[in-house]
Design a protein that fits this description.
226 residues; 10 helices; 5 strands; 15% strand; DUF2461 domain-containing protein
Amino acid sequence: METVSISKDALEFLKKLSANNNRDWFQEHKKEFKTHEKEVKDFYLTLMERMRLHDELDKFKMFRIYRDVRFSKDKTPYKTHYAGSFSRAGKALRGGYYARIKPGETFIATGFWDPNKEDLFRIRKELETNASEFRQVIGAKKLKGVWGDLTGDELKTAPKGFDKEHPDIDLIRKKQFIFVRNFTDKEVLSSDFLSKVDDSFQAIRPYFDLMSDILTTNLNGESLLR
């Protein structure tokens, strides 16, 4: 299967944009940006082809370079990174993938970063009932070796209706259930970067399988899918 790499020029463009984050400079260099944007999009689309060998994906989204500055104190008009996300297909498959490329700050992320209130409550009730399988999956040697520890925003105390003394309160109070893996610029520019990202996403599958099962059933194990 075809291998696509990220070029040094694509990273260097972001460095120059960071130092010249204004409309005049960007317009002068827009043609160069479009070249790099296409290169990075090709990388993402090739990655999607690889991922479809081990998961069912619905769609890919590459985020625009333009920042929404309406409610931000930072009024710089452009993002200084490339980013894309991949959605899993169908109601039965939960979780998502994200990849951001930025000089010195490249990372990939996966999991559940904005669960709706129904999903969040269902996850918490599952953990309240029995968190042993969840801990086993996130603590597995292969997954942990690639992704490290589960992360994400969390409450300072127990959510309403949950016991703050519960033995699994460290999990129950989470608002996000995500994993993040960082990459150096040297890794990003290497010929096997795409394979490393694909392997990382493949390693998260046991977690997605468990979470998909939780989020498509009730506490009695009965399917919620119609």
